[in-house]
Amino acid sequence: MNASSAADPSARQPLTGVQWLIVILASIGFAFDIYELLMGQFIVRYAVPELTGAKPGSKDFIYWASMLMYAPAICGGVFGLLGGYLTDRLGRRRVLTWSIMIYALSAFAAAFAASMPMLVFLRCTTFVGVCVEFVAAVAWLAELFPEPRRRESVLGYTQAFSSFGGLMVAGAYGLFNKYGESLPAIALPEFLSGLGAIDPAHQHEAWRYTLLSGLIPALPLIVIRPFLPESPIWSQKKAAGQLRRPSLAELFRPEYRRTTIVTTILFACAYGAAFGAIQQMPQIVPGVPEVQAQTKDKPVPAQKQIEQAAAGTAGMTQELGGLVGRFLLAILALKIASRKTLLRVFQLPGLIAIPLIFAFAATTSWPLLLVGAFLAGLFTVSQFSFWGNYLPRAYPVHLRGTGEGFAANVGGRLFGTMFYGVTQFLSGMSFLPGAQPTKVAYAAAIVGGFVYLVGSIATTWLPEPRPEAELAD
Description:
The structure is a single chain. This protein is an all-alpha fold. It has helices at residues 3-7, 17-52, 59-90, 92-110, 116-144, 148-179, 206-212, 218-224, 232-239, 254-276, 281-284, 289-295, 300-332, 339-364, 366-390, 400-416, 419-427, 436-458, 468-471. The protein has a single domain (16-471), classed as MFS general substrate transporter like domains (Growth Hormone, Chain: A), CATH 1.20.1250.20. Helices cover 73% and strands 0% of the residues.
């Protein structure tokens, strides 16, 4: 038995009813964080042409596709950083609850977008909720389960549900693509007609129903919310007047500076791989030879349905790999003491695999693309669970939300997400061969290989987590 487990009998006790409620809500929250974020890769290829008339590969398409993916990340990054600060000031539970409500309602409203500015704005507010929720949830869980081994397990396995969110959104998109025509039409209510109108020919689009389903996480929250406790250690310090005021400047004091800088760089690289490579998959799929053969000589609606179905299959495979990666990390986190070594278990194979997956597998063979999508998800998505385990042990209680918020939002959202636009920009360059889907694949290989290389080098300077005694202030 682990020494810490033997020292703390709570590590051997089964979870209480309240603790199970906490775990359930956290799992739902993490799942729908990713559900909301990954909608973007499925909706962009069809929402942009519908709302702007721009064709994939055109300058207008690249502009609006990049805007749709990056503007929300900027807003999410800024407000997520503020949310980390508010999490330390106002409490974990309150911020967690309202952030889930914000992103659920915003995603629902985005389904009724009648213009690109309207869709971009509502995706921005969705990202704001998601980015704040992640920081609040990780700090909350870390403090509700203070025993180290149980905390590692709870954080690892609840975050694994993020990949269930990825599977769900890929599955939902596939179902809406198949059965959307039989569902009620999506149209703006008459009193909102000043915002525009949805073309009747596009009132059954799969991307709109996928956005509409983002309301789901708000429903259990309404029921569970009254039973959720606040973080005990945060509450005690707040009541006793011992809770120190968080500060961004403190993140760059000598004892935290290296941790802050390195984790921010590594978060940027993880998000860079996700947005610059694996979230490009729906735009790559139409160029795979087998998919091209199926769409050849078909009418445009049939081509669209075939491409959407293939993108959904690739997305499901990718997220299945991410799910395996998250569970694998949760298991290895209890067996590998060095966090640096744990991260490299996923980084180094990815450094070799990602360029090959996108430059070769994604341009030559549908079966190879599916294998590659699985591996890309495994190596990349698992790293997000790593940060959920690492960051609560990097900062003390009064600085925990602020520190997590800085790394996740400045590194991940502000810098990492911009690699989506970098890939789109490169795909418009004449030096890349082939049709537009093939150009996107080669661009994703370049960007994915670059961020994996930078991340693998930066891990050299990643500090090991702080001793438990230092985390209570």
